[in-house]
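Page 37, continued from 36.
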């Protein structure tokens, strides 16, 4: 399953127990040992891409305080 953290970024969570801790070496859940499936990886990749795209669009329309002002 895909979980959104408080800042809105998607994170992969375990399908079985819902936790978000994975062993990156073996691609299994720390809590229950459920394997991360290729479907899970495709899902999080798509969610991250969508998040990055919406963030980029938002940054373009709302430049933050650090944005460089347009030069004359
Ligand atoms: Zn789990």
């Amino acid at each position: 399953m895909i979980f959104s953290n408080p800042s809105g970024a998607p994170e992969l969570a375990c399908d079985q127990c819902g936790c978000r801790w994975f062993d990156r070496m073996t691609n299994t859940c720390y809590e229950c040992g459920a394997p991360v499936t290729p479907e899970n990886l495709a899902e999080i990749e798509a969610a991250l891409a969508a998040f990055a795209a919406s963030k980029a669009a938002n940054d373009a329309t709302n430049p933050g305080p650090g944005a460089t002002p347009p030069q004359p």
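The pocket of zinc ion is lined by residues 14, 16-17, 19, 29, 31-32, 34 (CB under 6 Å). Flag for discussion at group meeting. The longest strand covers residues 2-4.
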